[in-house]
Amino acid sequence: MSALIHDIKYGTRQLIRSPGFTVVAIVSLALGIGVNTAIFSLLNAVWMRSLPVPDPHALRVVNWSGHNARLSHYSGGAGDAKRDRTGAMVSGSFPYPVYRDFKERVEGCSGVFAFCELQGLTVVGPKGAATAAAMMVSGDFFEGYGARAALGRTLRPSDESSDAEPVAVITYRWWEKEYDLDPEVIGRMIIVNGHPFTIVGVMPRTYCGPQVGDMAQMYVTMSAQSSLSPDHPLDARDHWWATIMMRLEPEADETQLRAAMEGLFLQTLSVPGQGTQMEDPRIHLVDGSRGLLGMRRQMAMGLAVLMGAVGLVLMIACANLAGLLLARGAARRQELTVRAALGAGRGRLVRQLLTESLVLSLVGAGLGLLAAIWIKAAVLGLIPDSLESFHLDVGIDLRVLLFTLSAAMATSLFFGLLPALRVTRVDLCSGLKSHKTLGVPGLRLGKVLVAAQVGLSVLLLVGAGLLIQTLVNLYRTDLGFSTDRILVFGLNPGQAGYEGDDSVRFYDQIEADIASLPGVRSVALSGDGLLAGRRASNAFSIPRRLQQTDQDLQADVLDVSEAFFQTMGIPLRRGRTFERTDTPSQPGVVIVNEVFARTFFAHEDPVGQLIRMNNKDYRIVGLCGDAKYDRVQREIEPTLYFSHRQARPGAMVFEVRAASDPLALVPAVRRIVADLDRTIPLEQISTQLQLLKASITPERIFTYLCSALALLGVLLSCIGLYGLLAFMVTRRTGEIGVRMALGAAPRDIAWPVMRSALWMAACGLLVGVPVALALTRVLRSVLYGVTPHDPIAIVAAVVLVLSVAALAAWIPARRAAKVDPMEALRYE
């Protein structure tokens, strides 16, 4: 131990004596380890960390799977459907009666609970009306989940009874935002969609729901279903919307438990008249220690790719430092030779040099941990304001600290061992001479390390280039509608008690008042905002094609107003748009897009044709241009536009085309809505351009991060190349002086330096480009409008690398060309 302490003290003194080298090394390591720690902390929060509840490994998420599943009323929810390798549909959404069956008739679990997230609720509190999300849960949710309230109590099974007072539990963030942490909040009344609820509890600040990024601000019992979510009936076995989790008993047999649950599940599927079909239905109990994995899996895939990218950056930093240590070791050759002559064995010298590397790594890791906190905050800052309620706990825990320490230890070996072994291979006779040339083996190894840095940088640059092209393509893609100067906001008068014709009159009045504002060109309504991430689809049939069933034909559907196509700039190709006379008492009408016409009426005019949906006939009265619906990345599907008057609208989205800045209209729009009904808040206010940017947020964040990492990698490579060339010029000062004294021109001195730099860069490119072509396939799923082998990205990376290499070589080459022969010979 005393020898180790001595090595640390001696190594620290040596590093202090070389401040330039030490600062460059520590900054490089801090950046390399910092970005790795930051991304790992995000990956840890999203994928690795268990839920902060007692015994999380006893939790299970209930899923089902089945082939050829036909569900009459499937609402998805937290358990969105997907396909497994066999083609079976897999989902975590169940009819609520199935939860009751599991709870009452399945043994081997200490708790079964169900929940469903509700978005866009109107909540009236002490600071006025606001839009919030809630989790509708079974009464035993908190008991089964294992969470306790910080203030008051949680929900109980008795709160679910029909005669119980409606109660709610709010989150710490909502308590802080709406009640300023008032301890007297318990017992206060809160109005949700026009219905009063009594606050009985506040969850702790550290509380985390079963879904990563849980956006719910409050929890209510399933008994609130009739008032908050009538589309989710509690007694219907053909409505699939509830997510089910359970907590296993210590000695539970999961095989027997799953078999019992499958039997109960089959009973639900066999109920006649439900319109539900499924082949080979199965129940699966998925590890719930990390909660629901759907969103976690999506986020973790991107973070895993980023971990690979930051790993490359750290490898570049290590190769960079290895080259610098080689140069530094050559400069310390006499010192090491003297120590060897005094009896120090090679192992002792290697240990000393590795100790210096370890000191560098530990200091770099400490600063990297601080840098990781800033980097992590910067990454989270890229999340748009529209997701302000998105919550993700990315604190530094023991796993992150161990990762950082492991990274420090590994990097110290990675960049320290090879130089230590190389420079301790001393020859006492030659080493004791005043000798200022770098040996050939060391020079070759330094060049190999620089070429390796260049090759790794090419990987990052090609990947970043592909992502940049993807982002540009997403921004430039033809949306089919205009995003210029359009204000978008939502209203839901149904939450204030408006129904049927009252809702239509409410929307008509708001539309007319907004249209009369100065600077407003036109006003429209739609069931969903374009590019808002939501879409609806439905099955339909063509009556005169009797051989096709409803399930054979599927199309996206959207309810819109008369001015929708004009306001959004969607061209009407043929026929007419909707009219105010298209009321429920009139024959149903529909407008279709061009994809619909090509798909279902390829050889005939769609205008005038009949389609049938939900047992009602609609006549196609117009053909409009194609337009993106929910996401930029998604291909345009066959789309049916219905008149919002005939659909008897619920929540609607307003699109207001302005003459100038659309956000300047917001105060006036707020006054108009408040004058008509103060209990109805404006929801999700934005512009259409902001919705476009928000729809490509994952790609934008991914591109920004990968581009920053690529630039960091190039910068480190540039430093490494510059350091090696500068060292070569310094060590060859005497040789350069002799050549210049013999008549060599400055260009004859500078060109070999430039040539050496370009040669090392070319070697790195020869290896890096083929490897990049092989590895960029992992980005295929996130690319849009560009292939993984895009020549533009590859050529751009090559040009940038060669340019940076030339720039890094320019200063050493210029310095070599300006060497004074007399000074050089005197120095030698």
From TrEMBL:
The chain crosses the membrane at residues 21-47, 299-327, 358-380, 400-424, 445-468, 701-730, 757-779, 791-813. Its main location: membrane. It is a multi-pass membrane protein. It is found in: Cell membrane. Residues 309-426, 709-821 form the ABC3 transporter permease C-terminal domain. Belongs to the ABC-4 integral membrane protein family. This is ABC transporter permease.
